[in-house]
Specification:
Low-confidence stretches: none
Strand content: 25-35%
Number of domains: 1
Oligomer: single chain
CATH architecture: 2-Layer Sandwich
Strand order of the largest sheet: 1-2-3-4
Helix content: 40-55%
Shape: globular
Number of strands: 4
C-alpha cells in the first residue's frame, strides 16, 4: 500500500494506491495515527488507484471506521473501481461507510 495524505482546511484526503492487504496492517495503523494527529472533521479515502483489497484490507477499513467514530471525524470512501468496488458492494460497506 502506498498512501498520500493532503489536508485542506479541516478535511483530510488519503489517496490509497496499489494494494491493501494483511502485510499493510502496521503501516495502516500508522496512517490512522497521522490522521488523528491532524484532528480533521472529515477524512476521505480516495480509492481510485487502489487495484486490490483482501479481507484483511476490508478489516482495516472497519478499524478506520471505528477510529473515526472514537476520534470524532467522519470517514467516507471515494471512487472505488473494479475488484475493490465489487468487494465493497458484496460486503455491503455502503451501509457502514459512505461511498461516493
Amino acid at each position: 500500500m502506498r498512501a498520500e495524505l493532503t489536508k485542506t482546511n479541516q478535511e483530510m484526503k488519503v489517496k490509497l494506491q496499489e494494494r491493501l492487504s494483511f502485510s499493510d496492517h502496521t503501516k495502516f495503523r500508522e496512517l490512522l495515527t497521522s490522521i488523528d494527529r491532524e484532528k480533521p472533521t472529515h477524512c476521505v479515502f480516495d480509492m481510485s488507484e487502489l487495484i486490490s483489497i483482501d479481507s484483511a484490507g476490508l478489516g482495516m477499513l472497519m478499524i478506520a471506521h471505528q477510529q473515526s467514530e472514537k476520534s470524532g471525524w467522519k470517514l467516507s470512501l471515494q471512487a472505488p473501481k473494479g475488484h475493490v468496488k465489487q468487494l465493497l458492494e458484496l460486503s455491503r460497506f455502503d451501509k457502514i461507510i459512505p461511498i461516493t
